[in-house]
Predict the structure.
Amino acid sequence: MKHFFTLLKHELRSILISPATYLAAFFFLIVMGVIYQLVLQDYNKSAQELLPNNIFFSTFIFPVLFLVPLLTMRSIAEERRLGLIESLLTTPINSIELVASKYVAAYTYYCFLCLLTLAYPAITYHFFPDERIFDKATLIGGFAIICVSGLLYISIGILASTLTRSQLVAGLFSFSMLFGLILGVQMIKEKADEYFESYSIVSMLLEYIQVLDHIQDFSRGVLDTRPIVLYVSSSFLMLSIAVLAVDHKR
Amino acid sequence: MEESVENSIEVNNLTKQYGRIMAIQDISFSLKKGEIVGFLGPNGAGKSTTMKILAGLVPANSGSAYICGIPVATHPEEIKRRIGYMPENNPLPMDMRVIEYLRFRGKLKEMSGRMLRKRIDFVLELCDLTRARKRVIGGLSKGYRQRIGIAEAILSEPEIIIMDEPTIGLDPHQILKIRDLIGSLKGRMSMIISSHILPEIELTCDRVIIINRGFVVASGSPAELRKEFLPESSFQLEIHGTYEALEPEIKFVHPKLSIVSSESFPNSEVNQITISGPSNQEIGEKLIKHFGSHSDLKLRSIYTKDPNLEDIFLAATKRSWEILSERSDRFTASPFGDEESLTENAEEDE
């Protein structure tokens, strides 16, 4: 991994100098700000079972569906189309370093964007110093699951980007995979519950990969290691396939 | 292996197939240390494929390639430390500054900080890029970009440089500069250059390899190829006198001489003729002697027209097409029965 840091520095630099980065951040923060404001309004109207942060974190899944494909679709697909990947691979780097650097750069930017939303509870707490607004356990748990599940989301995006030269196809492919993972599994689970007993292997397996349940647990402050193992191992799998795809599609 | 270390590049029976289409077949050649070799061939002949295999970018289906005695297939990372490769169309990141790009590539090529700074200054100077060092690549003209590609290829002082069409899209002035640049590297590095601009290759390269439809059809110095493919030499003469009287006189000088073309200037009796015959230094001398003492026909000028690389290239590819079509007639199932464009597409698709 001699060249990893050179490549990572290069990737981060190109993220930082691109105006698209700042525009994406601007729109993402506007959308999340509006959502947070709606959550607070609801909380104001009637008594709620959950803290505002719990509800806020479970809505995170929707911008992720759009944000991740947009962040990752360019990385390898566009560079391959322009011939830059080929040119990079004539230096003594290997495809693991290449994929890893793209992945870490996109993941860093993803986490940075998500952590920026910490500003909303912080600002609200500044004006309304209520413990429920800035509950540390929910914030730590919520951001932990967003960052950990991001490992898998970004790896799916990177994988999609290695499979094609077209940004559009890469974006749509990662969107569909994420949609399937986040909402498709939920739908299959509901259907499967009708046919299988609640402790059968199928329903336990489907329950294990329920992204929305993980968010609920973590944002209540329950740090479970099982989802962490799931996200880390499956992102390794996705990245391994991405490395094979880069090697194969030279 | 002993043998191959003497050669910078050694290629034995290399074959590459894209699906059903053969890009190259049974290609063998070698490059000595410090030698500059031109790689010629029509579009879709397999030039870029061969270069990509040498650079470790694509694997071959069969055969072997060695860079400085190291097999490319099993040690791709090792050989990448020894080559500088400039791909076709020279892709560059448009959002970087020239100096940033060279620094980035230098680091990837494992150059140390001090060494890198020194080399960057050197290649910027050599490629006449010093004034553009702080400019963003996207804002530079094609000529500048080509020179950045060359600067990058020679940055780490590799033993071998592989350049795929380095002079494409340049104006004559820039081509001249790049020719000087390549000439200045002669002897220091081995180089393999593919180009369509044949005078370039003839002037800068020690040896030429011509491939067509995936086969090596000719290999040798321009002089050797001239002897092999166009052994006849031709002369252009300007003679004052009647055209009718000319032919028997020429036959008199040498029976094998014949008039290839002729042109007469209006309102005068001056004829410009091109004649061809066996390659023989004495023929010129005989022509001058004969017409110099002739009473009716006066020689105004004479010069030898040596076939240039362009003629050799056309003759060699034409001959290979004839051989190939004979082959495909004999074996109707041969994959070369396909249209030429198929091979071309294969390369583009790749």
Summary: Chain B touches chain A at residues 55-58, 77-78, 80-81, 83, 85, 87, 89, 91-93, 95, 104-105, 107-110 (CB under 8 Å).
